[in-house]
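Much of our argument rests on the idea that a fold can be written as discrete symbols. The amino acid sequence and the backbone structure tokens for this protein are reproduced below:

___
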Amino acid sequence: MLLAYGSLLIATAAQLIVPQLVRVIIDSVIGGVQLQSDRSGVIQSLIGAMIAIVVFSVVRALFAYGQQYNAERISQNVAFDFRNELFAKIQRVSFSYLDRNQTGQLMIRATDDVEKLRLFIGQGLVMALHPSSCSRRR
């Protein structure tokens, strides 16, 4: 889980740096228009800022992938453990319990409830800290 949260923090930081780089580009263009004499310096700062935007976008994409991958891996492992425990529990219950309860109810718990738990762990816990999910709640 620490890998997922760490990847989320790095991806968010990389995403927050891009607007600052756009500010540098805009300031360079405005400054270059006002100071027509130093065009090579303006062009170098523009190229540097554009390359930095691409680099930070790639970093963000890699760490966003890492965050999703780790969150999904964790949720699949937890769901696997829950399914095994549920199966072991069903194996231990008495036959009278199995006679009283419908097979469909046991199957829905073995599949749907565990899948909902997996989705919550994989998406809910990580997205609870994600900054873009906060703006959607408002």
